[in-house]
Write a structure and sequence with these properties.
The complex is a heterodimer of chains A (about 550) and B (about 200). Chain A is an all-alpha fold. Helix content of chain A is about 65%, strand content about 0%. The longest helix of chain A has about 35 residues. In chain A, about 55% of the residues are buried. With about 200 residues, chain B is an all-alpha fold. In chain B, helix 2 packs parallel to helix 7, helix 4 runs antiparallel to helix 5 and helix 4 runs antiparallel to helix 7.
């Protein structure tokens, strides 16, 4: 196979001084470098957020434990939630999108490369600002401390009298800054996908990853903007003495809840839709079949996008709303399960009758299918408002959304890592280590999050610092914490695999998976200009057409 | 992988794609609309909920002259970009300068209104809920006007230096979408603050 790049005698990169190479990374506007920056940045925060989770699990492992102080525990769960959502999940998914979208739609860069760099650095500095609170939280007159108001920061906890010093300000400003970065990225994704496609790639011939990221970007625009607005209001309250969320002056604490969850619930779909995108690219390749029901997949995604904008108040059943509001949000929340179910059937339909190859990316996708189904089912349970009155704010809820985020999003992210690692690095990973990673992480995940439902059903509230013995929670909490050890072992296998493969892995070649989308037609890693000649496509699987000229896809589409 | 199949195909589709500037600006406007929607919802939600005065009915006067100035600046922007498309640089400069002037009048008018409210009526952000929501919503809009005016002033400077050509007209078309949006938001803010809220 001839390489699809122009031979240019580039100066040997490795001989240049480190400072110059580092400078290249800092000033880059190349979507591939920015994508990798996003991913590496998010992996760093994943480790930090993971350490915070581990400390919390050690604290809760046995009753009456005092491993950390109650104040530190409050900071840990606040920082864990904020970090994992805003500085791990969002940037890592944006990173994959930034890296892959231009390659998959056959163009040389994003529509606005400099905006792309600006968005990344805004996101990055938002994260640094949040963690700067550890040093600067109390300003000049005391030791620092981190925000401790919970990741959704309900009023009045965030008001001046209840949150002295500057820890909440760092939380607000960090999210405000990274939110502006996210909006910039979303504008860039939409513009790139609509305006930069290679000739022949009509909307109906785009890879599903591009389609799903388009929907995701639209949701970021409609969902992250309200959060930005709410953070501005919180700043007005804290700095200028405003009364938006000040109940003493007629303001409303419930309004903050509405504004936060108008962002907060679509956010879940902002995170899961790119995860769906990975599954929609990986499952067909390892089932050796085209995706089943492409138009339905697109329609279901758009449907999820719309419906998920009107489900936010299911986070607020326990606050006390009118019965009409309760019914409305119960119905919309259950309705969003319908298009999601359609997608699950389509992935199974893709695997049905295929020659399935159980490589690491496929294993993680199959794990995702099962776990996401269970996560969806507990979601339907919690959508029923009377059930939620019983279990709202319990460990059942915590188990439910970790099932979505870890079992759904993180599993597909690992699949995406293994699937595109050869493209990004030019080297194959170790399949043995990857299998170890999968099985260890799978066992750890199920030990932790399956058994976490039970103390929730037994009445254990979330965010408690410790608990008395004799309520039947001890054994379950112990099992949950033991599961964390397996997860850590799995992640170590993953990190070890990445580092080992970067240095010693087999050379991957352009197309190690015999795949069908455009990113596999260029070299691994792709040259800075991506494609020597801009490709022209005639079907959804352009590389299939090239490899099988006797039976091309465009005859049937 | 031979690239022949991908780029050397006999199949040559008709291929036109939407303009990047316009799509990007529409996306940005959608995001800004969402931000303004939240502020407008908060304003409407808090109408009449202030625990102490001053109340909007007592202190607000309808800024008719200001509004006419801002809304007519949309028209002058439109005339300016049309002149630029037709390569009439002089005419462009005239209408553009008028846009700048009308925008400045609006901003000065807002400043005078705020000065009166703060120093004569004693209304600040921290006085009551009306103050909080009023200054936030009107201030957010005024911030957008200010950003627009900075861009307009930069383009004005380039016009005076003779650097503006008709080939740049699409960029100014994209910017004028932003300016029309700021004007449209004013219509909403005006209705909410000075008609419904009063």
């Amino acid at each position: 196979m001839a390489s699809d790049s122009i031979a240019i005698n580039s100066p040997d990169v490795s001989t240049r001084p480190v400072s110059e190479r580092l400078h290249d990374w800092v000033v880059t506007v190349d979507h591939k470098k920015l994508g990798i920056l996003y991913i590496v940045y998010a992996l760093g925060f994943l480790v930090i957020g993971g350490i915070e989770a581990t400390l919390m699990r050690i604290q809760l492992m046995v009753p009456n434990n005092h491993f950390v102080s109650p104040e530190v525990f409050n900071r840990l769960f606040t920082m864990h939630g904020t970090t994992m959502i805003f500085f791990v999940a969002m940037p890592i998914l944006f990173g994959f999108g930034t890296y892959l979208i231009p390659l998959m739609i056959g163009t040389r860069d994003m529509a606005f490369p400099r905006l792309n760099a600006l968005s990344f650095w805004l996101t990055a500095f938002g994260g640094f600002l949040l963690y700067f609170s550890v040093i600067g939280g109390n300003g000049l007159y005391g030791a620092g401390n981190a925000p401790d108001v919970g990741w959704f920061a309900y009023a009045p906890l965030t008001s001046r009298p209840f949150s002295l010093g500057h820890s909440t300000d760092f939380w607000t400003l960090g999210l405000l800054v990274s939110g502006i970065g996210s909006i910039g990225t979303a504008v860039n994704f939409i513009t790139t996908i609509l305006c930069m496609r290679c000739p022949g790639m009509t909307l109906g011939k785009m890879p599903l990853l591009a389609w799903l990221n388009l929907v995701m970007a639209g949701m970021v625009i409609l969902a992250v903007s309200p959060l930005t607005a709410a953070q501005i209001m919180l700043c007005v309250d804290r700095y200028l003495g405003g009364h938006f969320f000040d109940t003493q002056a007629g303001g409303s604490a419930v309004l903050w809840m509405h504004f936060f969850w108008i962002f907060g619930h679509p956010e879940v779909y902002v995170l899961i839709i790119p995860a769906f995108a990975f599954a929609s690219e990986i499952i067909p390749v390892f089932s050796r079949k085209p995706i089943f029901g492409y138009p339905v997949m697109v329609a279901a995604t758009i449907c999820i996008g719309f419906v998920s904008l009107s489900v936010w108040a299911h986070h607020m059943f326990t606050v006390g709303m009118s019965s009409y509001a309760n019914s409305f949000f119960t119905i919309t929340t259950m309705a969003v399960g319908v298009p999601t179910g359609i997608k699950i059937f389509n992935w199974i339909g893709t695997m049905w009758g295929g020659k399935i190859q159980f490589k690491a990316p496929m294993l993680f996708c199959i794990g995702f299918l099962f776990q996401f189904l269970i996560a969806g089912l507990t979601g339907i349970m919690l959508a029923a408002s009377p059930f939620d009155w019983q279990l709202g704010n319990s460990y059942f809820v915590v188990a439910h959304f970790h099932y979505v985020i870890v079992g759904g999003i993180l599993f597909t992210l690992f699949a995406a890592f293994y699937y595109w690692f050869p493209k990004m690095s030019g080297r194959m990973y170790s399949e043995t280590l990857a299998k170890w990673h999968f099985w260890l992480f799978l066992i750890g995940f199920h030990l932790t999050f399956d058994f976490m439902h039970i103390p929730g059903l037994l009445g254990m509230p979330r965010r408690i610092y410790t608990y008395e013995p004799g309520r039947g929670w001890e054994i379950w909490n112990l099992i949950v914490t033991v599961g964390v050890l397996f997860q850590i072992a799995g992640v170590l296998a993953f990190v070890g695999n990445l580092l080992w493969s970067l240095a010693k892995g087999e050379v991957a070649g352009n197309d190690p998976w015999d795949a069908w989308t455009l990113e596999w037609s260029t070299t691994s890693p792709p040259p800075e200009y991506n494609f020597a000649r801009i490709p022209v496509v005639e079907s959804r699987r352009p590389l299939w057409d090239v490899k099988h000229p006797e039976d091309p896809d465009w005859k049937y589409e | 992988m031979s690239s022949a199949g991908l780029s050397g195909s006999t199949f040559e589709p008709q291929w036109t794609l939407p303009s990047r500037g316009r799509v990007g600006m529409v996306s940005l406007i959608a995001a800004e609309s969402a931000i303004f929607t939240i502020f407008v919802v908060a304003y409407i939600f808090y109408v009449g909920k202030s625990l102490s005065g001053p109340m909007p009915g007592d202190v607000l006067t309808i800024p008719i002259f200001n509004s006419i100035c801002l809304l007519s600046s949309s028209l002058t922007t439109h005339l300016a970009t049309r002149a630029l498309r037709n390569a009439k640089i002089g005419s462009f400069g005239f209408w553009w300068f008028l846009t700048l002037g009308l925008g400045m009048i609006f901003l000065i008018g807002t400043g005078r209104e705020w000065h009166r409210l703060i120093f004569e009526e004693g209304l600040t952000v921290s006085t009551n809920l009306f103050g909080t929501t009023y200054y936030s919503l009107v201030g957010l809009h005024a911030f957008h006007v200010t950003v627009g005016l900075i861009v307009i002033a930069i383009v004005m400077m380039f016009t005076l230096l003779g650097k503006v050509r008709s080939k740049y007209s699409e960029r100014l078309d994209v910017f004028s979408m932003y300016w029309h949006f700021v004007d449209a938001v004013w219509v909403v803010v005006f209705t909410v603050v000075y008609v419904i809220g009063r």
